[in-house]
Amino acid sequence: MTTAEKTTYVYANRFVLGGLTEPLRVTPGMVEIRGGRIAAVSEGDSPTIPTLADLQQSKSFDLGDRLVTPTFVNGHTHLAMAAFRGVGSLAARRKNVVEDLFFRLEQDLTGEEVRAFTRLGAYESLLAGVGTVFDHYYQGEAVAEALRDVGVTGVVAPTLQDLAGPGCRGHQAALDATVAIDESARFRAAGVVAAVGPHATDTVSLELWRRSVDLATARDLPIHAHAAQSGEELRRALDRHGTTPLGWLHREGILASSARLLLVHGIHVTERDLLHLDPERHTLGFCPFSQMEFCFPAAIARWHGARVPFLVASDCAASNDSMNVQKELRFVSGMGLLAATFSAAEARFAAGSGTLPDAAAVDLSRTSAFDAWTELRDPEALLSTVWSVPGRLHPALPCGAIEPGCLANLLVLDPNHPTLWPVHDPLRALTMGDVAPAIDWLMLRGEFIGRRGDFHRSVLERGYTAARAEADARLGERLRRLGLGG
Fold first, then answer.
1. Which DSSP string do the residues of 41-96 spell out, in sequence order?
2. Is residue 237 pLDDT above 90, yes or no?
3. CA 20 to 30 Å from 265, out of 53, 169, 255, 288?
């Protein structure tokens, strides 16, 4: 029996199973893992016990009462931009932070810089329980190398631009990098695969969008792009095309192609735009804390009402300051109640009426908002946005669920940790609790990493000091060249 064929058996009293083809449920059981994938799942207090011969050719882990879930999937990020966390004043972020600040910071990035910076973002992701990322950035092969260096699995979309942005001069190289990542057996063995990455509707020409679609359909790759992410992008679409960014993609046949599209941010999306999206092929991306920084949160209740699937992601540390995608779920859960905060009834009450009828109207506004948001507050629906929705986007990297065929990326949590105890409702705890400190262990592609019970410290012992030293040096030199460092 070869190493790739050896089986790992994982036992636990509390697996969170399902998500892709079946509803989520918490149950005792056993997970059988081969070749980095989940081969079989047995449920119940008495799971199928492997034969003695099987056990002699395998590894077995009994996790007892630990809570075992899929690792989180960050469906849209730029890990290398961890290097720009906190760069730029509040005033610099008042308008278009992408064009006014980030494009300047990203000019002529080298592969060595991107690889060094991405490693740091990958380490942070691991510490938050993220096992898979969808990364969209320049120097795509360097991003893929960095994920492989740290061990994080991911879908890498080399950024394509030909109208504006730091990648304008290198769009052919980015297309070539997409093909190279897709064809690399070394990357695929590490759980790193490719997506096609047109940047946005105002930085990518129609010709390059069409080339992106052709490449995606020929290789069965998803397209990962920004769309309707800023007022400037909206105005350019209206000026150039007489319609919205998604309206333009519809009119030009991009949305009608067979390619799977992940369209991120969607801040300026109309109800008519939503009618053009096919839930079988199109997914929207919501990055709440990042959107509060660079624009404002998208109206996801409209997306949900149109039954368009969406994932929740962090975006980058430069516009979020955190790679902990699980913490975003708390904001999604409570976002709808802001309707009461900004309601006419609350404004009347606060303006000085102080009357019982106005107070009752505020309460009614809150109750109405609560009821309207019920489905979006459901723990299973929330968890799907960081598990199964992004997990089904790439056919070569199914993840975000403990089901046969999925990547064996498992998160082991201590239910007695102060941030989770007492776990009366595990799914609610996973959405509303602070999960990261309770990580006991983590598996990537069928192999546990770090030390059980000392996960965070042990992960940082896996080359982090040297990785940070290189990133520090490269970042310092880049900021000095730009006149932003000492």
1. EEESSSPPPPPHHHHHTEEEEE-TT-EEEEPEEEEEE-GGGGGGTT-S-TGGGSS-
2. yes
3. 169
Identify the CATH assignment for 3-71+400-449 out of 1.20.1260.10, 2.30.40.10, 3.50.50.60, 3.30.1360.20.
2.30.40.10
Domain 72-335: give its CATH code: 3.20.20.140
- Across the chain, how many H-helices and E-strands are there? 24, 17
Structure tokens at 371: 């009821």
Report the DSSP pairing between strands 261-265 and 447-449.
unpaired
213 falls in which pLDDT band (50, 70, 90)?
A: very high
Q: How far apart are CA 176 and CA 158, in angstroms?
A: 9
31 vs 54: CA distance, rounded Å:
14
Retrieve residue 275's tokens: 């009618």
pLDDT band per the 50, 70, 90 thresholds, residue 47: low
Angle, alpha carbons 117-121-122 (nearest 5°) = 110
For the record, the structure tokens of 110 come out as 């080298």
Share of the chain above pLDDT 70, in %: 93
The token pair at 53 is 């011969």
∠ CA 451-408-29, nearest 5°, is 85
102 secondary structure, DSSP code = I
CB 464 within 8 A of CB 352: no
Residue 50 pLDDT more than 70?
no
Spatial CA neighbour of 400 closest among 320, 408, 171 = 408
What is the Cα–Cα distance from 451 to 408, expressed in whole angstroms?
Answer: 18
What's the whole-model pTM score? 0.94
